[in-house]
Design brief:
By secondary structure, the protein is an alpha+beta fold. It is built from four helices and 13 strands. The protein folds into two domains: about 90 residues, Ribosomal Protein L25, Chain P (Beta Barrel), CATH 2.40.240.10; about 80 residues, Ribosomal protein L25, C-terminal domain (RNA Polymerase Alpha Subunit, Chain A, domain 2), CATH 2.170.120.20.
Length: about 210
């Protein structure tokens, strides 16, 4: 995915005032970079986030300077869900960085067809990688897994350029049996029985005639 550019402005006012004016308050920092309070236009920032992983790199234009950044943290309102504050990390493409990457489990439909479900324990992994080689996500196909089978860190297909900061035997997920809705099955069986009894009664009435 190509890198997008988002414009930022230096911020001197408090975050609340910036939000009232339609901006997202934040801060940008990094190795050898002075920490700067910034504000971003909400529409511009949403355009960059749309369809992107939190770990994807984008270009931040601050004044005359353009630098590569990743999102380190987003603070959101617990009820409204609006963005309250954002932390950005300025990085060099050759810099080795530490970050968390989401794990995407593919093949759930196939598990469901076998009346299995995937019980997740970990949905992101922490890695160290050169910024230029940073993956947006790590995917694994679980469609052919059997009941009770564990998916561990060692099952992930990861480039040798990436260092995973987890033990190989750490469990990401387990294939479990899907719960059967006993109440629904019971009601269905009762309806079938009632329908059978009704048909039997109708046949008996007809024979008496």
């Amino acid at each position: 995915m190509s890198e997008s550019v988002v414009c930022a402005f230096e911020r001197t006012e408090k975050g609340r005032k910036a939000r009232r004016e339609g901006f997202i308050p934040g801060v940008v920092y990094g190795k050898g970079v002075e920490s700067v309070s910034i504000k971003l236009e909400q529409k511009d920032f949403r355009r960059v986030l749309q369809g992107r992983s939190m770990t994807s790199m984008f270009k931040l234009k601050l004044g005359d300077k353009v630098q590569n950044c990743i999102i380190k943290e987003i603070q959101k309102h617990p009820i409204k869900g609006e963005i309250l504050h954002i932390d950005l990390q300025a990085i060099d493409r050759d810099e080795v960085i530490r970050l968390k990457v989401p794990v995407v489990f593919e093949g759930r439909e196939k598990l469901a067809s076998n009346r299995y479900l995937l019980q997740e324990f970990i949905n992101e992994v922490e890695i160290m990688v050169k910024a230029a080689d940073m993956p947006e996500l790590i995917s694994i196909d679980v469609g052919n897994r059997e009941l009770g089978e564990k998916i561990t860190i060692s099952d992930l297909s990861i480039s040798d350029d990436i260092k995973v900061l987890h033990d190989d035997d750490e469990v990401l997920a387990v294939v479990s049996a899907a719960k059967v809705d006993i109440k629904a099955d019971s009601e269905s069986a009762s309806e079938d029985t009632a329908e059978t009894d009704s048909n039997s009664g109708s046949e008996s009435d007809g024979n008496e005639g």
